[in-house]
Design goal:
Strand content of chain A: 15-25%
Shape of chain A: elongated
CATH superfamily of the largest domain in chain A: Bira Bifunctional Protein, Domain 2
Number of domains of chain A: 3
Number of strands of chain A: 17
Oligomer: homodimer
Helix content of chain A: 40-55%
Largest interface: A-B, 106 and 106 residues
CATH topology of the largest domain in chain A: BirA Bifunctional Protein, domain 2
Radius of gyration of chain A: 28 Å
Strand order of the largest sheet of chain A: 1-5-6-11-10-9-7-8
């Protein structure tokens, strides 16, 4: 073995997760999982590696270039998963006889994309998806909105869910006789908020080849969305606007049902907005579609999007599997919370640090730390005695707020003071046996 | 797009995690994380892909063959991580100036090995490691034993931690003048329990080339371990056995300290056993070594092993980083619990299912389910009304024990009965507003 050091570098577009970020992410994931579970969504997992043939599925060139793809030792063409949707489709097709439908699952796992790395975009990131598979019931759509509302309330971010139905947009196109160009039209409309009316108009002419009358109709329809009508008036207007399109009327009926039902699932009506311009880029949504914005930071874009699709796994099974689901953008939310200053810098899960000043204090300190833990409070204890200054600095660096200070004097009196590093205040000496209770009652309520 | 279906198969040696297993694993991981956190260990994560050069490090042929290795689109030689130890070493070397030492971290993440798949061994599995880095303090070793004890108590598996110190074995070899063959001797001894005395003796002659006197000494030493002496008497015997070896005496002193200190960290003395034959296969352990067995199923082998090492990251940095840590075998524990029948078959996290018998009952059912959730009880509600039989079957399939049954009669009386699918008992009708409290007090205490 040579003594030359290997440079400890990581791959471009990848990142380590240090304790501070890992703690924040775990806290957030824990809350999301509690909410998913509370609605009866079950966790699943799938392999990181799949047959390339499975992942490519419909096989767009764009996806192909994004794959980490290679030939394994057995000569198989394999790739790392680039999303959780295709693995879900493959999973449901493979295990359909072992699952009870409607199948409600969530999946939180890393995915890999060999994209050009950009600020805030990595080649490895965690996706968080949840879906209800195998039902046409619009109650499932409403439940998905209820889950989002509960999840974002739980992680305490003010939000607005903007909901629409693809059939309404399709109905509009239908009534304009441009159904066969609907994908182009929907793609153009989807860009309205980001790029403005002019760009969208240009795209409607050039890409979707709409005539001026049709374009005017499209924008009249969009204005309905910004009309500040209450929901009942809006649904009435829509019904008359779409009276010639059966599909459009079906969409209005579905949207109305989902909008009303979502409230029974706990959605706050003020946080739920009908937005007729939301189309979602993906072609496979067929009914409900939604996006979610942060009230305090709408500029970062949608933090949770999704919708209803007609058939999840048509590539892998003949069984038709309609469903509805959403995807929560963890990194985007964490980034926003950091920007808004609503998260603490903390690199340790411990809430208490027990300082040990001299050898005499060691055993009692370790035992006291055990008792603090038993009371349910995470607690780190100094491994070796050392000067107080260095220990306080260590606790502060790790973001541990409370410090119990134990030396030979404290051992003699079986009591020790607690210092709060945030306020710099220090209590008088508290009896060892009282310390766990004291901490719970005075610092952690 | 052709209509030919793609077969929804997965790669050999890989597996999907279905809800039942995923729920069990999540529950266990949640408990382990609580314990790690309670001792002040912080989570971290590292990329699934690393430069092959980093992962190969010392570069054994055996490791090389196990790698999922390929050239990425940028022409880099990359591999999927095959353990969490090398990524930890690379991580600490890279971030040493951002971390506070002693650095206490845990890491729960999948690893990939291109091994021949066998029963119970997969090419992708989750590792669960925790370590304290950057301290020589034997208190850290004792704390690691405390963590294991607390973790296994938390997941309710009866266990026995068997602890030793490599310096004691090295001291024995030292006193026999076979130090330069120590790796072969330790490897042989490590096989004693599994393969018996005869095999080990043969290996000591053939591989380690010990003479009969030395072999007799080795076995006299091993017998000390089986002598049923109490710990104080054992330490005295060891001190006299090893009186000619400074290294051996240092090992006895360390083992004594760790054994005694572990109790301050909450280790139950009955579950902590000194076992002088434990060497651990890996060459890099230099002090404390331990294994952990299930009391009720010792045959499955060690469920948590580890030890102290002199220098974690010498391949990547000149800074010496001694440390101590352990690795918990999740799949082995889950397998054992399954074998012992201590886990429930359950594919839903929900504890309550609200059946909906007719259209009239829908809104109230959804609202009641929301209230049950608000009370902290996971609850799934039927998306569409249907016959009771099918709904009961669905709840039972998913392992949801409690069912609230709501139809138009129940709506009229604003009260509904609760059926326990495990006992087949059904309560009389309970007022809607009382149901969440009733469930908490009568079924979930």
């Amino acid at each position: 073995m040579s003594n030359k050091l290997i440079e400890p570098k990581i791959l471009k577009g990848f990142q380590d997760t240090l304790p501070n970020t890992a703690l924040q992410r775990k806290e957030m994931l824990g809350k999301l999982e509690l909410v998913f579970s509370s609605f009866g969504f079950s966790p699943i997992d799938t392999p990181a590696l799949e047959y390339t043939e499975i992942l490519l599925g419909k096989g767009s060139n764009e996806t192909d270039k994004q794959l980490f793809r290679f030939t394994d030792n057995g000569g198989r063409d394999v790739s790392m998963r680039f999303d959780l949707t295709i693995p879900l489709a493959r999973f449901v097709a493979l295990h359909q006889n072992e699952l009870a439908f409607p199948f409600k699952r969530y999946h939180i796992a890393p995915v890999w994309r060999a994209e050009k790395p950009q600020k805030g975009r990595y080649r490895e990131f965690i996706q968080c998806d949840f879906d209800t598979i195998g039902t046409e019931s619009k109650t499932a759509d409403a439940e998905v909105l209820g889950v989002i509302s509960a999840a974002l309330l739980k992680i305490a971010v003010g939000h607005q869910i903007r909901v629409n139905n693809r059939k309404i947009l399709s109905g509009v196109l239908d009534s304009l006789n441009v159904k066969e160009r609907s994908v182009s039209v929907l793609r153009a409309i989807d860009k309205l908020e980001k790029l403005g009316r002019e760009v969208v108009e240009k795209e409607l002419v050039e890409e979707a080849q709409l005539n001026p009358d049709a374009i005017q109709s499209v924008f009249r329809f969009i204005e309905l969305s910004n009309s500040n009508l209450d929901s009942i008036a809006l649904f009435n207007e829509l019904t008359s606007f779409l009276s010639v399109s059966e599909l459009g009327l079906a969409g209005v009926k579905e949207l109305k049902e989902v909008y009303q039902r979502a409230q029974d699932f706990g959605c706050n009506i003020e946080d739920l907005v009908i937005d007729l311009t939301i189309a979602r880029g993906l072609d496979y949504y067929t009914g409900t579609v939604f996006e979610t914005k942060l009230k305090e930071l709408p500029s970062i874009g949608s933090i949770c999007s999704g919708g209803r699709y007609d058939d999840l796994a048509s590539l892998y099974t003949k069984r038709r599997l309609p469903g509805v689901g959403g995807s929560i953008g963890l990194d985007r939310i964490l980034g926003a919370m950091e920007e808004l200053g609503t998260i603490k810098k903390k690199s340790s899960p411990a809430k208490v640090y027990v300082c040990v000043l001299d050898d005499m204090a060691r055993q009692s300190s370790i035992q006291l730390a055990s008792q603090i833990r038993t009371a349910g409070v995470p607690c780190e204890v100094a491994l070796e005695p050392s000067a107080l200054g260095g220990q306080l600095k260590y606790a502060d660096l790790k973001g541990i707020e409370l410090v119990v200070i134990i030396g030979s004097n404290e051992i003699a009196n079986k009591s020790a003071p607690i210092k709060n590093l945030a306020t710099k205040e220090q209590t008088s000496a508290i009896s060892f046996s009282e310390i766990p209770k004291y901490i719970l009652e005075n610092f952690l309520k």
